[in-house]
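agent> Task received from the user: take the single chain below, predict its 3D structure, and emit structure tokens. No templates, no multimer pairing.
agent> Plan: (1) validate residues, (2) run structure prediction, (3) serialize to tokens, (4) report one or two observations.
agent> Step 1 OK, no nonstandard residues flagged.
tool_call: predict_structure(input=
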Amino acid sequence: MSVLPSPDEKSAYVEQMFSRIADGYDTMNRIMTFGLDQSWRNYAADSIGLASNGRVLDLGCGTGDFLPILAQRAYDGMVVGADYTLPMMQEGLGKLAKLGGRGSFIQGDALRLPFADGAFDAITTGFMMRNVTDIGAAFREMARVTRPGGRVACLEVARPKNPLVRLGHGVYFYHMVPLIARALGADPTAYRYLPQSAQAFPQPERLAEIMADAGWGEVRYTLLGFGAVAVHIGVKK
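)
tool_result: status=success, residues=237
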């Protein structure tokens, strides 16, 4: 049975869902990805060429997993995490405190970012784009707040092309992950949303086209995790 909301209901549905699972989100992320999600974030961070004094936004920051990784690279710069769901950021306040004043959280909508044009040198986003109501509009808004020549790194799910890998991936995410969530006391409906939203998300080739149409140049992507994850890179024209 589908748990995907209608387009009109999606924003409220996603905000309520992530509010419910905020306290166990990091634990489930590590379990679902076999601990690989942080290595994928490191790969994405390495791909944006961030200077030591760079200004970087992590959009859809959730509990702030990207922020320490970005702060290691922009150690004399500014790291901002923005998310629509306040409880997720509240869960990440401990990570933020460890940055020693070099990072901040702000609540914001990916389609209406509260930042000036060209405010950032780079933007990252991890497992967020499938949760927005308009992917193209979100990429256009990211382009607006990025300076010319700045980069975006989009880390998102993909569907493996290898039939055997795709079969195993489907069994794991459609059946095992909701069971694990239930066993750990997490919301199994939320973890049914994950594979269903991944299935509905554009394939990497199509996502690259959407990025290009939104004002990003030199768009390329790399598949990780046996094709289950894609990192897209674009340069602001």
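agent> Step 4: summary for the user.
The longest helix spans residues 163-183.
agent> Done.
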